[in-house]
Amino acid sequence: MLDTIPGVALAAIGLAVLAAYYRLRSDRPAMSFADGGTASVTVGLTGTEKPAGILRWFTTVDHKDIGLLYILFGTAAALWGATDAMMIRTELLVPESAVWNVETYNAVFTTHGFTMLFFFVTPVFTGIANYVLPLLLGADDLAFPRINAIAFWLLPPSLVMVRGGLITDVIGMVVGVLPVDVTLFEALEPVAMGWTMYTPLSVEMANPQISVALLGLHLSGVATTMAAINFIVTVFTERPPELGWDKLDIFSWNILVTSALILLAFPLLGSTLIMLLLDRNFGTTFFAIEGGGPMLWQHLFWFFGHPEVYILVLPAFGLVSLILPKFCGRRLFGFRFIVYSTIAIGILSFGVWAHHMFATGMDPRLRASFMAVSLAIAIPSAIKEFNWIATMWNGRLRLDAPLICIIGAMSTFVVGGITGVFLASVPVDLVLHDTHYVVGHFHLIVVGVIPLAMIAASYYWFPLITGRMYNQRLARAQTVLLIIGTFVTFIPLLILGYMGMPRRYGIYPTEFITLNQIASLGAFLLGVSVFLWLVNMIQSARVGPVVRDADVWNLKETGQFTREWQWFEDRLEERRGKVEPEGDPGSESETTRAVDPDDDAES
Amino acid sequence: MKRFPSAVAGGVSATTVMTLLLLLLEVETRSAMDIFYVIARFIGTPNDPAVGFALFVVAGVVAWPLLFLALEPYLPRGPDPAARGVVFASLLWVPFVITGRGDIGGPLLVLFSAYTLFAHWAYGFTLGAVYGRLLDRP
């Protein structure tokens, strides 16, 4: 019956029903305003409360709520991508293809790349920035609260589209219990072409899920671009008069530069994906031999792809630069030069894309110029690293979990960064291209620096976000385990690369078995560490000891009690003022879940 | 809410979470583990995964929550019911992984054991957390 009605009509009916429901609800707001506030129908009473329960999270335009949504979404994507990673390392425990077949392995490393790059790192950093950027600037919210909400809500559907093959499989399995034909659900296979989607393979593969995934990636690019525009406008226009460019905090600087890179790189990815979609479905020849040629794809893709790696890592540098001084009792050394180096990295990142293509037979003179710019990027990166070391010099280090994270991030950045300098050299790259050396190099950054900076931020701001404290001993253990796991996993990969083990193969010669098993062991350590972090966060948010003093990290004594903590202190004061008349706030037990609804995540 | 309905509500949410996690594992691994047969072996109907799965849902929604109600005061890691739920689910995982294993072996067994333990912990945590929340006790 259903197949005689066009899908458009069904969609229209669904939307009409939804619209009618919202129009005719008895408690519907009479009117709403651009800031997301509503006025109640009752004359003389104005509601300023957020709606209760789940509806609050679906309708929120508050930057703090959206920040939390981003962080939760990114964490969920990270756990999904980590499942892929565990599968990769399980497969590589043995040389032959004993666990999954090679097609599954191809799909797993492809989706691992997509999920981690587009749906884990950028959303989590966007979420952190969403939460703290307005507080750091002293703004009431981002410049465009509703665009902020739209930018977030575009992400879940895009994740569903990119990983659609698996999701339709799930639906097919559930429906398959009934006596129904499920071949429809099995048409979409998980994509298996590598995250770089190189043509001609990505044009030739028949799997229709590839086109769906391309649309999903395009959608995520649109969402990321919207968020970036929001941050740029916020940093430019939402600062109070006394906060000049010279006083802007380092994290906001990094988010600003990152957003500029997003604005310049992601629209290009979008256009490139559309060209590939047209090649796949409409017979255009952008990337065919008689058209632009397969190299065109690589140029267009990496013109986005290289700035993308800085889009991923610059917010992490910003967090390191922001949090490190707080635990050393000193100001950030060379603040101005860290800002300049951030901008320099941002600019240079657009001039190095072809170093991903040294092995494709480009003109040697072109290769030489890209090699020079790639080597030059090491300079601003080193400026950052040395300034961080200089910040720690003579400081009073407090080895709390955030600082352990940051020291670990600085260590992995040295190894991960310098291996990149080797790869920037053309003759070296020709040997190491497409080996596990490359995988080891960039994973030392994306598993070393990036998650460590995120986890440092999560531990640093956890009391501010939840009003509770986490288990600090567990946090320290988890952090150390994560750092050890990173080195144990990816140093063997560097060695494997020197020995010549290629990337993206589920099977390998037996002489590589020992190093692969060490790497897998390290990966399982990483898995345990992530699990411990998750337990600590969830349990502490539920039943952790309630924070009474806003100066959790003793920042006042070193004069680093920044705006966001000031805001937190004001909120605690406000709450105490509310509680005081009813009784002594100190009588409440510190380990039990308070039944006061105000104690949930933020109002 | 009363204790019994709270526990059953916890069971419904926990079984949903666990089923989703196991389904994800099943499709992720392209059915390398045949998780429905694992469940069927665990329940004791090794050749009929549909019946096995139905019994699995009944157990997850009613039987285990009731057992949890009875055992909860005696479990360690209290007073938080969610933490006790995790201990409870770990006990359930032992027979699950032994009887459900079938002929899974080698590296796959490592992943299978770790993932199913994680899924059981998610089950126990959700069971305890929802139960505690509905009872309005910490």
Automatic annotation (TrEMBL), chain A:
Cellular-component GO terms for this entry: membrane
GO biological process: aerobic respiration; electron transport coupled proton transport; respiratory electron transport chain
Chief site of localization: membrane
Membrane-protein topology: Multi-pass membrane protein
Disordered: annotated segments: 575-603
Record-linked Pfam families: COX1
GO molecular function, one term: cytochrome-c oxidase activity
InterPro entries on file: Cyt_c_oxase-like_su1_dom, Cyt_c_oxase-like_su1_sf, Cyt_C_Oxase_1, Cyt_c_Oxase_su1_BS
Keywords attached to this entry: Electron transport, Heme, Iron, Membrane, Metal-binding, Respiratory chain, Transmembrane, Transmembrane helix, Transport
Family stated for the protein in its record: Belongs to the heme-copper respiratory oxidase family.
The protein's name: Cytochrome c oxidase subunit 1
TrEMBL record, chain B:
Top-level taxon: Archaea
Residues annotated as transmembrane: 53-71, 83-102, 108-132
Keywords recorded for this protein, A-Z: Membrane, Transmembrane, Transmembrane helix
Entry-linked Pfam families: DUF6789
Protein name: Uncharacterized protein
Source taxonomy: Archaea, Methanobacteriati, Methanobacteriota, Stenosarchaea group, Halobacteria
